[in-house]
Amino acid sequence: MNRDASSRSNIIASKAKQSRSEGYQSLLIVLSGPSGVGKDAVLARMRKLGCPFHYVVTATTRPQRAKERNGIDYHFLSQEEFEQMIHTEQLIEWAKVYGNYYGVPRDELARALPKEVDVIMKVDVQGAATIKKILPQAVFIFLMPPSMKDLELRLKRRHSESVNDLALRSDKAKEEIKSLPLFDYVVTSYQGKLDDIVSQINAIVAAEKCRVEPRVIKL
After folding, report:
1. Which domains does the chain carry?
2. Across residues 112-138, what is the average pLDDT?
3. Which of 100, 106, 165, 212 could bridge 161 with an S-S bond, Cβ 3.0-4.6 Å?
4. What is the DSSP string of 32-82?
5. How many C-beta atoms surround the C-beta of residue 141 within 10 A?
């Protein structure tokens, strides 16, 4: 473990506890970026370092990958189950991406925000745009690949997409990067630098806690 990253995470945790005793205002952090940029890896590292967030679990109909845990990495649902959630308005936002449904369960936020804890969720860029309209006071962070070549290599290493799918994801990533003005912050996702990425996200959270007019999330 990177000692500096661990120390910074402990400082953030200490400040969070102090803020709770002084009238805590929860932040909603929306982490987005192209497919393959490392969103899941960053959140997993944040959990391991003990960063004090409620981690929203996204619902999806895509197949479960090796080492993924249902209810931890994603809520893995059948298409029928997901469509039922759509019809009963149980999702804050949802979209069909590369043939699979993805969505953010409303009850994840409804349970977390009243508990005076900061909330972080990962969504694709399309989902971030939707949430921006619904919850504009959220903090939007774009995870940027160092280069398109780097992103394409990451996608190939996953061995979960066909050649055609890889080309589609690469083209879509180029379009998604054009949505950067939608976001409040950008963090470059260098391979092998997870602790640095986590530190930057924690620094963003610390800066947001110093706002003269805090962000107020209203569901």
Report:
1. 3-8+22-56+117-208 (3.40.50.300)
2. 91
3. 165
4. E-STTSSHHHHHHHHHHTT--EEEPPPEE-SPPPTT--BTTTBEE--HHHH
5. 25
Q: CB within 8 A of 184, min separation 6: which ones?
A: 139, 140, 141
Token couple for 177: 């990067």
Residue type, 122: K
DSSP 79-143: HHHHHHHHHTT-EEEEEEETTEEEEEEHHHHHHHGGGS-EEEEE--HHHHHHHHHH-TTSEEEEE
Q: Which residue matches tokens 């925000």?
A: 113
Q: Which residues share a beta bridge with 28? A: 119
Q: Which residues contact 177 (CB under 8 A, 6 or more apart)?
A: 34, 144
Q: Exposure of 172 by Cβ count < 10 A (0-12 exposed, 13-18 middle, 19+ buried)?
A: middle
148 membership: H or E segment, kind and range: helix 148-158
- pLDDT one-digit tens code per residue, 47-65: 999 999 999 999 999 999 8
- Closest residue by Cα to residue 43 from 187, 171, 150: 187
Q: What is the pLDDT of residues 68-82, one digit of tens each?
A: 999 988 999 999 999
Q: Find out whether 134 and 93 touch, Cβ atoms under 8 Å.
A: yes
